From TrEMBL:
Segments crossing the lipid bilayer: none
Protein name in the entry: BHLH domain-containing protein
Main localization (coarse): nucleus
GO cellular component: nucleus
Domain BHLH as annotated: residue spans: 6-61
Coiled-coil portions: 51-78
CDD domains from the UniProt entry: bHLH_AtPRE_like (cd11442)
Matching PANTHER family: TRANSCRIPTION FACTOR PRE (PTHR46446), TRANSCRIPTION FACTOR PRE1 (PTHR46446:SF30)
A GO MF term: protein dimerization activity
Keyword Membrane in record: no
Protein's UniProt keywords contain Translocase: no
Length: 94
């Protein structure tokens, strides 16, 4: 119970989101998520599932960024630092 009270108290200072705004946000998330966006419109997907898929998608994107950064770092170490290739790789890190 104490967790619910503290979350209610902390959320009372944040602006409230109306039901219509929540529905609009979930609809937008459905459109951009690959897993859910590929389903037929007639398939019902709960808001909870959309939020869960959004979190998974963001985690996957973060992993991809980390992997690409690592690969670029390795590539940068393998080329001459004054080469045009090195300049391109460095620009990708910016």
């Amino acid at each position: 119970m104490s967790n619910r009270r503290s979350s209610r108290q902390s959320s009372s200072t944040a602006p409230r989101i109306s039901d219509d705004q929540m529905i609009d946000l979930v609809t937008k998330l459905r459109q951009i998520l690959p897993e859910i966006g590929q389903r037929r419109r007639s398939d019902k997907v709960s808001a909870s599932k959309v939020l869960q898929e959004t979190c998974n998608y963001i985690r996957n994107l973060n992993r991809e960024v980390d992997n690409l950064s690592e690969r670029l770092s390795q590539l940068l170490e393998s080329v001459d630092e004054d080469s045009p290739e090195a300049a391109v790789i460095r620009s990708l890190f910016m």
